[in-house]
Fold this protein.
Amino acid sequence: MSAASWKVIEYSMINNDNFVFSPPEAPKVAVHGGGLFPVRRIFCIGRNYADHVREMGGDPKETPPVFFTKPADAVVESGAVIPYPQATENLHYEGELVVALHGGGGDLDTREKAGALIFGTACGCDLTRRDHQAAAKKAGAPWDTAKGFDHSAPIGAIGRYQHFPPDSFDNARLVTTVNGEKRQDAALSEMIWSAPEIIIALSQQFELKAGDLIFTGTPEGIGPLKPGDKVEIMIGSLPGLSFSIASQQ
Ligand code: MN
């Protein structure tokens, strides 16, 4: 049997009833008011708050946004208790606005087309192994173990666009508390790249699809978490996100 004919037989055996083990359950996020959002991919933007760049006279948009990803099954629902991750001694929270897409496309060229893809928004936390990230930056190595580990993407219920349009956030603040103490408090208007601008930039790198989530970056005030800590992230009137790190046994 030639290699070519063997390949034909192999592919012909693939059908929905013939998985060699059960396919994993589709990752999902609750939608405020009812329903489930099926998660396809998780994109994240590296740095997206102007901090002092503008007051220093610099142009925050001088360089294009930097993107990285997390696996879809890194999502964690609000209210969860997650284990302190293995292989780190410096787990950090990053409170972020998350944008959920119900449509897709590539090479989008207008804010209108980009905005039309938005299903809704949510409060999220880009959990980070800061020690891995520092080592990766130093070595010019990939960020995967710093950002894409298990349970690294807690996300609150998604508020539908009709009820929580991103434009209504202009005066909203992102507030992160740890054990009730405020750690992050920033206006979303300080974001360097708006949600539609991020979608346009991402669409120039990937063909976006329904089910994609985008973590839009964190403001200043990031810091470490320890076992037993409770994290809460609020953005304007969006459903809040709350989760805890399990106490050590
Ligand atoms: Mn982040």
